[in-house]
Design a protein that fits this description.
- Helices cover about 75% and strands about 0% of the residues.
- The chain is mostly helical.
- Helix 7 runs antiparallel to helix 9 (about 170-185), helix 9 runs antiparallel to helix 17 and helix 13 (about 265-275) packs antiparallel against helix 14.
- The longest helix has about 45 residues, at about 65-105.
- The protein is globular and about 70 Å long.
- It starts with a helix and ends with a helix.
Length: about 425
Amino acid sequence: MAEVTKIRYLIFLRDVLILSVSAFGGPQAHLAMFLQKMVEDRKYLSRSDFMEIFSLCQMLPGPTSTQTITAIGYKFGGPRLAFLTLIIWLLPATILMSFFSLSYTFLDRGTLSVFKYIQPMAVAFIIIAAIHMVQNVARTKLSVGLMIFAFTAAALLRHPAEEYFKTPWIFPIILFLGGLFSYWYHDDIPKVKKTVPVKVNWKYFIIFASVFVGIGILAKVTKYDPVILFENNYRFGTLVFGGGNVLIPMMFEQFVKFREFLTAEEFITGVGLVQAVPGPVFSVSTYTTGLALKDMGLHWHLAGCLIGTAGIVLPGMLLIFFLFPVWNQVKHFSIIQRSLSGVIASSAGLVAAAAYLLFLPVGLRWKEANNFYYTNLADHHFVNWQNIIVIAVLSFILYRSTIPSPVWVLMAIVAGIFI
């Protein structure tokens, strides 16, 4: 019997590997592939079980598709299989984004010109992600209001009042306020009366919280870049609701503007390249964290890729291990139902803010790098019309096209070589 179970687990992990090298197109496409492969074809779980798991992962911070497939592994074979599922799912994306990170370091300025269309393409991808997310979320006046609030606070108020908003904590504050407003507004949702106490194994939550607090203190005390970067990624994985596109503005603020680990050009190139990689969009952390440590030598560059990957996925994994066993007991709690729509609406506003923030260094020319006050605009020809036209054309085509994202990345690189 044990041998049969082992074989079933190996077949399951083989299916995860197939998904990990073929799941292009972001979390929506990933989830459709999970449903087809794990539910319809293999019948590892029922459709209703899958939707339950997906609902849970939508309510949690972190990479939704990564948490979903990890939770499927947990349901099918417990925490050990869930952990192996996570590793196999992440491996191809981690290897490819590490390769891109190392390659970027060794290319000279002339060779880097092959990526010149990757950056406007990345902006176009984020614009389309924002449009789709806004269309899906803008169903009530409250949702629209929270999206406008999040966009205004994260994008439009940044430059006239940056001294008050230049903090990476502005993003979790926006999400918290969105959830709070939603909780107050949806007072018509009845409270769930619990007659049976919820049985909880607190081990994984204690680990999650201990790492969050401990690494924050350690980063503050040591001021050591590898520790700071792990803390940054762990914080992102703890506070990001809405997937990889919500991660982009947080990471841009922290790594480019606040810490200046990367240039805007380096960062936006990574955002574009991740579109060519199967697996989670969160693997952009592999690229950015490795590149942030490039000046410490090759070994630290490679270590940075692992630090970024571990930091960004560890919170989501621990939360899945903590909450999945008690999900059926807590999913009807009114605090979750009343707050979630506000968090999601605020996340949509942050994706729109990401499109704006990434457009600035690509569509306009600046005197001083990474300084996006409008007083810092170049004195002459400050509008980069070529990039703006590319962004506009690509956005229109992407909105109406079903061409896979890796094909667009390949075309952008080929165009950079010949044009």
